[in-house]
Inverse folding.
């Protein structure tokens, strides 16, 4: 706040519970008074993403995979757990840079900042740049075979184990709890 006539506030998606409906409010057109020729960026059109999937920033449940998955061919494990939980897939930058996953899935400082109800980190070390994008998640679950991995410092629940053993068992248990497995 600078005490000027206009204050701009921004919020991280999902960071706050919405208030009760019905509050009074109105949208006002705002003219910043900048001549069109001086504008550096002009929004010509806003297009919805073609993909049907829920955007990471809007998701209640995110299951993210990291380099511990060893290769893109093993992301079926991440997708399987995400599907069982009704969530979407996220990724660390290491796997995005390696071309295993699209940039739209990257969580962290140079990716998306997310605040889901549940964030599951599979084979992710928990580098500071990754944590920058997900520590406001309400519940964090981590699976990593290294008990000293930094991700465990922010996790509400941590499993020290191999993703190739733990994730299939977790997925099976989730499906069984939902009556589907
Ligand atoms: C300017 C800058 C911006 C960055 N922005 C981002 C960003 O937005 N998002 C981001 O994620 N990173 C970002 N990074 C990169 C970040 O520093 C890390 O390099 C990256 O997050 C590491 O990804 P990772 O955890 O998947 O891989 P690694 O650090 O290699 O960790 C892999 C983990 O998997 C575990 N593991 C290995 N095998 C198994 C197994 N079989 N079972 C269980 N666990 C296993 C290991 O113990 C390890 O902890 C940025 C870096 C810089 C310099």
């Amino acid at each position: 706040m600078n005490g000027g006539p206009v204050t701009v506030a921004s919020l991280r998606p999902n960071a706050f519970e919405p208030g009760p409906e019905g509050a009074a409010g109105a949208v006002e057109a705002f003219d910043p008074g900048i001549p069109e020729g001086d504008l550096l960026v002009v929004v010509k059109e806003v297009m919805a993403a073609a993909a049907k999937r829920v955007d990471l920033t809007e998701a209640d449940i995110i299951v993210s995979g990291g380099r511990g998955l060893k290769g893109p061919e093993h992301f079926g494990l991440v997708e399987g757990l995400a599907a069982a939980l009704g969530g979407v897939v996220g990724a660390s930058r290491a796997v995005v840079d390696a071309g295993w996953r699209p940039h739209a899935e990257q969580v962290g400082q140079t990716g998306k900042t997310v605040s889901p109800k549940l964030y599951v980190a599979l084979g992710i070390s928990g580098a500071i740049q990754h944590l920058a994008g997900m520590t406001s998640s309400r519940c964090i679950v981590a699976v990593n075979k290294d008990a000293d991995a930094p991700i465990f410092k922010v996790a509400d629940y941590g499993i020290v184990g191999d993703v190739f053993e733990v994730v299939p068992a977790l997925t099976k248990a989730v499906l069984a709890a939902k009556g589907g497995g």
Observations:
- The first helix runs from residue 75 to 85.
- The chain has a mean pLDDT of 90.
